[in-house]
Amino acid sequence: MSITLTPQQEAHIAALAARSGRSPGDLVTEAVALWETRRDLSAQEDADRPAKAAARILELRRGAKLPQGESIKSMIEHGRG
Prior knowledge:
The structure is a single chain. The protein is mainly α. It has three helices and no strands. Helices cover 75% and strands 0% of the residues.
């Protein structure tokens, strides 16, 4: 595969590779692998987000009770008025 980089991008990658003691090709390969790992982790976090939100809601409402004589319907009507 061939990738076209600007001269500035090439210089930047060469400088990073020199500082890390790796070849530019190895550096880019490692960067792509790291990007894929982070993308996969981010996708997993996005998939878990609704379940975590639901668990947090259930945790917050644990022990919460309506006042004596009140119903959900009466609270809704009170909020509308």
